Amino acid sequence: ASFGSLFEDTHIGMDGLRERSKSSPSAAMKKTIVVTVRPRERIPVSPTSSEPWNHIMRSYAHDTAAWHHSNSKLKRLVRLGIPPKLREYVWSRCLHAYQRKEQAPHSAYSNLVVALDRPSEHLKTQLCALDRDLSRVPVADERNGSIRKVRLRKLLAAFIVYDPLIGYQSPMCFTASPIVMCVEDDEMAFWCFVQLLEVGHIGLRDQFMPGTQMLQTDCKTFASLLAEKVPDISRKLKENDVDSVTFVPGWFRCLFGLRVSESAQLRIMDCLVLEGFKILFRVSLGILKCLKPRLLQCDSLEDTFKVLLGKEVNSELSIDPLLKTSFKIRLARAKITDLRKVHLADLRQETFSQTHKGHKRQSLSYEPVIENAHDSYRHRRASL
User: Fold this and answer.
1) CA 117, CA 282: separation in Å to the nearest integer?
2) Residues 287-304: pLDDT tens digits?
3) Separation between Cα atoms, residue 245 and residue 232, nearest integer Å
4) Alpha carbon of 195 to those of 159, 168, 317: distances in Å?
5) Does residue 31 have a pLDDT over 60?
6) Helices (H), the chain
């Protein structure tokens, strides 16, 4: 259905001006509706999508603040699953990728792609690693899968040029795969991936920073939450000498792409782009609760790893029961933030003590792990 057909007695032209309909004599007596649509923006309203989603698309078309996790109506719909044809539009709004694309210079993405024609030795090394990992990305359809892998390579290669401090790391194939699958426009897919890593309510970029300080912090934070929310599983993992650092990084950085089915990963992504980093902790706790009967039967490190990391896990984690279990867990965003502060301060103090023995404990506050060189680099990149 066209966007104009959603409003009775209203025709919307590309110039953004409302023209009064001449279809009936009473049209002039009806309430005037003024809608401004930017020429480059298309609002997809699918006849196959439910009426609540049609209402969301109409109501929040020009309200960027509405695409936020505090919007309970939107959150409820997203948790039930975004219709496939609407994912590109909804993801780009929740990640603010549409605004990021509009703010970037017209040729910014094109310049990144052109830079790949003259790769440096460092870029060649990273591209070789990327090509090796692409073979590990599962695809259901061989023809469409090969096209997706070409687009995935192009996106990640452009990201290497865009952000050389992070560059390419192995899990990124699985991190970017759902975006390439659902976002048809290459440039929009690139900005969605950038925002997935950089936007504040997700902050996935810290997971890939050199030194893995935030990654270690989140592993300790998850261990604390597990001990509080699922204490029997926490005790069992400790008995079998299984540390959260052995499986949590793979789940977080791959967005569960190696542990759940493709369709399940898309549903998790639906929630992640809106609700942010809390979904990573929530779903991880949900996975362990779903695997609880098998985990409690494990008596060794090897048996536990087979359950946590084995490929057969995919068939056991149906998405609807998994999300139902995950959202039954009471988990506050402030609780995660507070635990992160505590564990990051402890980790920094431990590093400080190892480097400067005998020094007094320093008061350390929580902040994203950003070096001075990285900070200045972000300012340079902002001028693209």
Assistant:
1) 42
2) 999 999 999 999 999 999
3) 18
4) 12, 16, 28
5) no
6) 51-59, 72-80, 87-94, 97-103, 108-115, 121-134, 142-162, 172-182, 186-198, 213-229, 231-239, 248-253, 262-275, 278-290, 292-296, 301-309, 313-316, 319-328, 333-355, 372-382
